[in-house]
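Can anyone check this?
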Amino acid sequence: MFGRRLSLLIFLSDDFLHLNYLDRVCHGEPWLLLDNFKNTWLGDRSFFNFFRPLVEVSLAFDYLTGKGSPITFHITAVLLHFSNSLLVYFIAAHLTKTKSLTALTAASLFAVAPNHCETVAWILSRSDLLVTFFYLASILAFLIADSRSETKDRLSSAFSLLSCLGLVFSLLCKEAAISLPFVLLALSLSRGTASKNARFHSGNFFIALLYLAWRSFSIGSLYGGYSGSLGELLSSSLGTRWFESEALFQVFHPFNLAYFDKSHLIRLVSRITWFALGLCVLINIRRLEEKQATFLFLLFWTVFSLLPSLQILGVNAYMAGSRIVYLSAAPFMIFLALLLETKQLRVSSALYKTALLSLFVTMTWAAKMNNQAWLEAGRTIEKLQRDLVSLVEIDRNTKVVVFDLPQNIKGAHCFAYQGILQGMLKPPVTANDLSRQVIALDFQPLFDGFIDAYTLQEALQHKEKYRVYRYDRRSEKFISYEKPISKKEYSTIEASFKASKAEEASFISLYYDLKAACDLNSLLGIGVKDLKLKKKTSLYFAWPDDPDHDYSAPFLPIKANEKKDLLYMPISDYRNWLASEKLSLLRMTMPKELYEVRAEPTIALQPLSAVSPRLVAEEADNAHLNRVELRQEIALNWDATAMNLDCDELWLEGGEKYVAFNHYTRLSRDDKPLKKAHLKVRLKAKKGRYILKAVDFPESGWYQLRVLPIKDGKPCGLASNTVIVFKD
């Protein structure tokens, strides 16, 4: 529809969620924009619970003026980034008493920072660009008003009003702006004008309280952020993001690992540069007193503006999530530049200027390379979308089932859940709505490194309804998938120990000959009878012939003093396993202390169905296989007759709204009952039918259900596959 496009000028990831929405807004449903002012962003609470109405207005304006072309969105992003760099210049100029070189240095460092590639290249990072624009504009307007306050002229009042408006607009763009009233107060304190501006600051805090009240009313939550499993995962990793090295390390060391490996020369240059900058600060620490208040304010602004964003996301080694540092980079770059004004020793001054120049050069180079990920992702997704449409057109009477879609490409976002795939198959991207013709098995619905093997079997067994394809990362093509399914239960195969190799000082790897082809019903049984652990650890698995994937090798956590003879790893649920053409060797990596206890742990390859029941939704929506829409009632069929474990009963468990089972253990299925179950029903027979009613789920949303085998009141074996219930 949009004609020929450049690779960068393409939509990615969450962009596709907004395109159909924007198309409706610009073609007869403009009131949808108003819904964002009184509801969650796009009205979807299953994965995020944000209040960002002004961002959607901005996107709608771009969509209308550019007639849906991605070029318009990207031009606006570049213009906003340039505007933010200018605002950094003017703020730095005010703080440094119009020292143009210092201000230009701050603006230049901000403009080329490699942390900003995600913010500028990804359309849906518009929220970060806009919140920063209004945030900086509010600070600049306050600085102008404060400098003219002695004259008490109308311009001073006008700029104070503009600063308040900047606060309002920034709050309507992103939650991170809640730090602005505190930052403005800190700025006033640093300038010694807090009492004089008391009325102004009181008004700002009143605006912030009104915003929090309206936002809480609109989204039904004071906290907001990502919801469901994703929200719980991020909340549980808060300490990791705040206090462990990776997230904060990437802020100062923003090199995408895909392009700059750990031994790359530029990494060494960067560390030397930061060391030189830090050394100059220490040498001249006493000379900073003349601007102590300004330096303290800039540090406060940096930390305080970063914390709300770090509450939600972190930054990984591939720079994914780096948009969270966009706003806080402004005060930090001003801080670095402001040190130029300190009266340093001649040697120290020369060293500092050289270090800043080195920082600018290395950051420019890193930004150029980091952007390559977004160029590559744009080209890949453009081709992937065309190929999907072509697959649909082959036969409209059958549905296309795909798996192994890329979550990201070298850190650039591609897919996260089903809605993104559906968005790229709806108008205006396609002429007609094809979203119900394609099923992605990767989303359960929380994206992870595995899929439901039983659901894949269902699609393969009904070729009259489904055509199954695997996306091959290397060739960037969809390949027809026809893995054989075992007709009978094969006997347990013990893999023999082949070799050992020390990987690191604290880990060791063992290799096993599988002696079997890849199967869709495979389970690893690991003998742990003689292992006595003093602390929690994990076993890691990999196979030499698996392709590149987003996720590292699957792992199996083991608790300290766990009293079990056998642990189960449902290996056929992993995309890596299913994507492999053949499997010959299995590598198991373990902590060295485990190896020293028992040199050759027993590993058996056996049927998954021998230890796990099966659960099927009788009236499952054909567009989603084992996903069903609940209106009045639905029938669930369970079957544990293939299990060779003796269990007394089965439990049908239903999780809480928007929570996926795999969130708790990071495994595709486990042997632990839910701590918080929305539904729990005891099933006496090994096979049967259960009627699920709409009253069982009073709130709208999606829920996961599974069956767990129980022996003597305790779980045995593994939980079943998952059925996902959607209730409007």
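Reply from J.R.: I decoded it. The two ends are 32 Å apart (CA to CA).
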